[in-house]
Structures
1.
Amino acid sequence: MKKLHSIIPVCILFMLLLHSCSGLGPTRTSLVTITIGSSSSAAIQVLPANTWARLKHFIAGLLQTTTASAAIPSMVSDIKVTVSAADITNIITLVPVAGLPSVTITIEVPNGTNRTFLVEGLAASGVVAYRGQTTADLTGEPVSLAITLTGVNPPTFAGLVSASILTISSSQLQWNAATDVVSPSANIVYLIYQATTPMGELFTTPTYTSPAGATSFTVSNLTPGTIYYFVVRAMNEAGIIDNNIVERSFVYPGLYVATSGSDTTGTGTQANPYQTISKALTATPGNEGVFVSAGTYTPVTTLQLKAGTALACTGPGHTTIIYRPISGTPVAIAGNVAAIIDGCTVAETGTLVVNPLIDDTLGATTINNTLVECSLNNTNIGIALQNNSAVMNSRMSNCAYNASPGYGISITGGSALISSNTFTANIGAIQVSGGAPTIANNTINNNVNGIVVSGGTSTISSNTIDSNSSIGISMTGGTALINNNLVSTNGTGISISNVSPVINGNTIISNSTGISVIGSPASPAINNNSIYCNTTTDLNLAGTISVNATANSWDHDSKTSPVGPTTAAAGCADGVDICLGGSVSYSPSNSAVPVPPACR
């Protein structure tokens, strides 16, 4: 049972004060004063019950102030003190304390040995919510003891009601609120215990703890295809935990595949899996998982997912490897409505192909935690999207076709979400020729080009785009909001040709050219960016253009020398802030970015 020193502190100090004043002799009883809820120095004081002690107690009562560093809990309505021993009749005192921060109780107790002091905090119903006791001898010798009140009864709780499916790797646990004499339901927390074997929960250490008052909890990052078991217990403010063992299990339903399985005698269960992914996809009706264990799989033809199918590769560290079919070089995996690809490595066989490794032709597909490994100079596109698909937490690399432009992801339609991915060693990381994609929180580095936009309406936000040898963001068509990106150490940070995007709040640093705007007409809005330390120029303008470039921070401002952003005509020397080749408004500008002198 957990001790709650901070809930109702009760310290006991027994001091038998003997006075030599005339007429005050030994006594047979003591005055016991108990203070509860004041602080860790609150005391039970024992005095001989003579006239002098009673007078001192009376005066102290007149001077007493009620202050508390730890108030009596709100659910305690009465304090009950019971003093007992073998040679005395029990002395019981009941004092109402509802709403009080502290209380002082004085009891006259016969001297003697083995005096037991039991202090109880009662709820309004009369049920004991807290209890503590100690024993001492009242012999005239000073003694210091302490009582710690602890909660008595655990919450009343029926346990976990359900563990339902949220996604292939998450479950929602639900229960009905517990009740308790110590804590209101809104203050009860729930301890969640997780195991992968029945009753394998370790009840000494919860896996998760819910917020107070919760009646549900989402468990994430579960391994697809694994059966999980859960027990939930309620804990009140006194730290008392119920001991129910109601257990519920969760597993995403589906079929299992392993290289050691059999398409002939296998039944698709975890104990008797199929051998090929194609067999499982043929057998499944859709809307369930196909769980593929570690190993290398080379299907004969495209793996066509059915609607709602979750292709979950369960090999740790992406050790489930799916190669593109060799015959006819078709798409490796074709998505479908509400289908999922999770945890896989999807790789090229090495044959020259123009087809993507993954597409979503039949419907919006979620691709998560997947490695798309193209073969440089052999694969044109890693993932081709035309629906409202999502690609998250994945890596696309080595996508090109015979040295011509190849892309990790190519988007031709839909409202795709491209988030929290890594793109590296591609000719181009992302191509947008249509649709309305959101491209956010990605790391795009060491490609030839980063994001190439020729159409559609794009939101490009909060990405890190660096060390791409040609262009970080290239835009020749469509519209775009380009904001809050870090664009650094590319050939050209952002290249704009014949279009008018909004470029706002970016940091564009240490590229050869920061932003290049060319063509006719072009009227981009370039505001509130930090554009500095770009080797050739921060902003290069060429053509019949009109650029709003106010409120940016450059290498120079009104306090630097030379004053303000430096400008020059076409053919600018290295280090110029703005190389003029059209109409540009750049005043007012924000304060200069503090940069090393070598960048100025």
2.
Amino acid sequence: MRKALLLVLAISLVASVFVSCGGDPAPGPTPEPTPTVYNVTLNKSAGGKAYLEKTSYTSADDLQAIKLSIYPDEGFVSAGVSLAGSDNTEAMCLFLNLLIPANSTGDIVITPKFKEKPAGIEYIEASWNASESKVERTTEEIDEGSVTLVTTDTKTWSDEWYVVKADVEINERINVTGEKVNLIICDGATLTANKGITVPEGSKLIIHGQSACTGYLRIKKVDDNNAGIGGSADTKCGMVEIKGGVIEVTGGKNAAGVGSGNEKSAGTVNVYWGGVFATGGELGAGIGGGNKTDGGNITFYGGIVKVQGGKDAAGIGGGCNGTGGEINIYGTITIAKGGHDGAGIGSGKKALGGNIHIHGGNVTSSGGKYGAGIGGGYNGKCVAIIIDNGTVFANGVSGGAGIGGGVYGDSGSITINGGAITANGYEKVDDYVAGAGIGGGGVDDGTDGGSAETIIINGGTVIANGGSGSAGIGGGCCGCGGNITVSGEKTVVTARGGRWGAGIGGGEAYHPNSLKFTGGTITAYGGDAAAGIGGGSEGGGGDITIEGSKTLVTATCGKSAKYGIGPGQHVEDGNLNLGTGVHMKISDNGKDWSDYIDKGKMYMKTVI
């Protein structure tokens, strides 16, 4: 709201005129003086607007001043007015009454002079436009006088705005004490915060860059139990938002790169724009939880995020023994690698993978040894994984599924609604302890591996490759195939089982519970002694339903197996339910049995 200060400049014009012509004038009436006409012109000036009530005055209007309205631009507090024949009038005002100056010639020029705009600092503001599913970035500016310059002594951040204009190194831990603190890292400047930044519960740190995104925040020498950015040994993590700049951060032992410290809650981490390169300390996630801590709430809207988890921790998600938390990925380029026993995205060792929702973007995620690419760490499964869109490449390592359980871990609930997904349950093709491409994890000591629980594919293009003993989609090595549904006219699924694993269904020696195909193009290849769709080696076929005129199924069994659809080697068990109009091609150990398929119900004990 603009404040109006009425300034009235009162100028008393008193004039006495004496005329001498060599004698007294003849008496007579005094003629009326001709009124002087004053034409007033208003010069336009940058920095605001001004308006005159009228542009023509006469001498009789002397006591009725010129009325001038002034509207400075936002942020200006005063304006000077130059009136012909007079000095400037500095006024913190919106309205002025100016009397016509004495000895004016009839033409008056008023030139408003607005206060100069103060020097400002540009920064990038970013927000998520949910209706258009994109990050919106704008260049904003803040008055330099409203910003605190970061120097080597700026160790407590309590003000609302801070700026890094040049290279600055701070060798003590920075503490954010303000409720909401904004940091601007100017292009070409670097802040090296060797001991990291504490953002406690109840505080929020927002990191902004500038248009070129060449400002750096580097954090590399953090003490044990402290996150690089976020929680500390003594405090829970608050909220960290990254909206620009390049962030290179490594957490201390037992702590995350960005997120929680040792055994403290992880808080919230949001990335909108910029580059984030985060590494967890030993037992800490790259982004998420520290030791024995879940991942908190993690959302990536945009930018580039590359993370590496510490030993026993996920790249993104839980620390050692920590669940994955709530993870949402929208439009980011995300590259994640789990530490030993940790998932790339999901949980740390011996914990649930949490809820992972990929809405879009480009995601490449690999587990550490024994961890899933996306899902559970060692002996861990995911609560729920949902992929709506985007390009996803997930690679399990040494027993972890590409998407699903870590070694020994079940798949949890997996739903794919769209996107282009490639999931591999192996680091090497001959890796014996590998997991499913999508589904359960493998084993490393000959016991049963992870089972598939519920896998639903409603859309997208899906390629899934299982490792030895594991299905392409379904059970891990020596794991049950669970309940798998494929639907959607435009859905394309290609699944290849590892040695002794079904293309879609059970792992070695196991059967699926229920397989249902109601749409799409499905191509499945069984591994040695396993069905294309159904049982792994020496596993039953389970209950298999194929229906819908838009469903095209091609199933090929592996060497030594008997059925393309049905049980694996040495087993005669299972039910096949066929709807009308189904298009099928079944290859049983090199023989094409397509001509022998009848509509209706078929029992796999009958050689088809």
